[in-house]
Amino acid sequence: MREPFLFFSTLLSYPTMQTLAEIQNYWKRAVLSPESLELLAPFQTAMSQEGLAGMQECYTAAFDLQPLCAPYVAYQLCGDDARRGQFLIRLQQLYRSVGFAAEGELADHLSIVLHFLAEAPASEAVSDLQEDGLKPAVATMTGLMAGGNNPYGCVLAALEHTLNFSVTTTKELHHV
User: Fold this and answer.
1) Phi, psi of 72 (to 5 degrees)
2) Which residues of the chain have pLDDT under 70?
3) pLDDT score at 28
4) SS3 assignment for the chain
5) What letter would DSSP give residue 38?
6) Distance CA 103, CA 106 (A)
7) What confidence score (pLDDT) does residue 1 get?
8) pLDDT at residue 171, as a whole number
9) What is the pLDDT of residue 109?
10) For 12, which DSSP code?
11) What integer pLDDT is reported at residue 21 of this predicted model?
12) In 3D, which of 99, 146, 92 has the Cα closest to residue 120?
């Protein structure tokens, strides 16, 4: 499951020439399920039509101009109160415990959390972050973006599908 996390981490980072090139490389390797790739098709189309400046505008419209859809896990779970601060402190402690450094964004930014999940060794705390933090935050964000025409809504829907698929697959493997 690590490579899909890296792919989504890149997709949910602010678009640059480097991130767009990385996205193309991930697509060539088909690191996602066919269903997730199908959900991402409108994003891929937008990327080829809009170019860098257009994708930067889409990103800003999706995540910066709509405060309810801010790409921060703790914000989606707790709002902007003291619980978010506590979540961020615990998240930083988890990151430090495995030698991971959140750079360029707050520790609960979707791209940072996904990058961490891609690199972190399996543990109960990592699993809890995915199940109890990332999944409900992504579900909320997907709902907020549903019905819109921003290509990042497709990214969130594909991430939600991937998270649900990976949990189902992991549970099935443990029961074999």
Assistant:
1) -120, 120
2) 1, 30, 166-176
3) 79
4) CHHHHHHHHHHCCCCCHHHHHHHHHHHHHCCCCHHHHHHHHHHHHHHHHHHHHHHHHHHHHHHHCCHHHCCEHHHHHHCCCHHHHHHHHHHHHHHHHCCCCCCCCCCCEHHHHHHHHHHCCCCHHHHHHHHHHHHHHHHHHHHHHCCCCCHHHHHHHHHHHHHHHHHHHHHHHHCC
5) H
6) 8
7) 61
8) 38
9) 97
10) T
11) 87
12) 99
Please answer whether residues 43 and 142 qualify as being in contact, where contact means their C-beta atoms are separated by less than 8 angstroms: no
pLDDT of residue 25: 83
Q: How many angstroms separate the CA atoms of 173 and 83, rounded?
A: 35
Amino acid letter, 124: E
State CA 118 to chain mean position distance: 11
CA 128 – CA 131 distance, rounded (Å): 5
Cα separation, 163 vs 139, in Å, equals 10
- Give the chain's length: 176
The span from the first CA to the last CA of the chain, in angstroms, equals: 18
pLDDT at 148: 87
DSSP E strands, 25-138: none
CB 156 within 8 A of CB 141: yes
